[in-house]
Amino acid sequence: MLKWVWISIVTVILDQLTKWVAVANLDMGTPIAVIPHLNMTLAYNYGAAFSFLGDQGGWQRWFFVVLSFLVSAYILYWLKKLDRSERWTAIALALVLGGALGNGIDRLISGRVTDFIDLYVDMDLFFLNNGHFAIFNIADIAITLGAILLVVMSLFLPDTDASNEDSPKT
């Protein structure tokens, strides 16, 4: 099932390319409106999701670098063990792998993750900062889509291995 790694490679390339374009064309913290509810705003994240641990003394950089590459190695192992019939699992894992590598590369090279996609709504909700969701990037989108796909499959699709064990042998 390593044939799905091309999705990871494309994800890393798109992620790194869009981050490069954002850094080259955006000023830090200055939003540029694209369409209603979507700005491009350059931001750097020194921590994890929602800047978790971002205000620490720098040790978190190496922690997250090691974590992203350990997770990537485990996902590659998982992909290798998948059966051919588990293509949606492979696609989901390939998305998570690409996202983990994209953000891991950022942390390894510059010690921070470059974010630039700024979604917002025109109301102040308790979980949004003045209507703005956390600024994110292509790697974050890939990780989120892959994780959602894995959760949906685990909740709503029957386990084919378990159903095959219960069927009578002929």
Average the pLDDT over all residues and give the rounded result.
84
Name the helix and strand elements from N-terminus to C-terminus, one letter apiece: HEEHHEHH
State Rg: 19 Å
Largest sheet geometry: 3 strands, antiparallel
> Distance between termini?
28 Å
Got a strand count? 3
Strand order of the largest sheet: 1-2-3
Structural class based on helices, strands and sheet pairing = mainly alpha
> Helical region count?
5
* Helix percent band: 55-70%
Q: Which descriptor suits the 3D outline? A: globular
Poorly predicted ranges: 161-170
Strand content: 5-15%
What this model shows, in words?
With 170 residues, this protein is mainly alpha-helical. Helix content is 55%, strand content 11%. The chain has five helices and three strands, in the order αββααβαα. The protein has a three-stranded antiparallel sheet. Helix 1 (5-25) packs parallel to helix 3 and helix 3 (87-110) runs antiparallel to helix 4 (138-156). It is globular and about 45 Å long. The two termini are 28 Å apart. Residues 161-170 have low confidence and may be disordered.
Summed up, what is this model?
55% of the residues lie in helices and 11% in strands. With 170 residues, it is mainly alpha-helical.
Topology:
Blueprint: H1 5-25, E1 32-35, E2 38-45, H2 59-81, H3 87-110, E3 113-119, H4 138-156, H5 160-166
Antiparallel strand pairs: 1-2, 2-3
Helix pairs in contact: 1-3, 2-3, 3-4
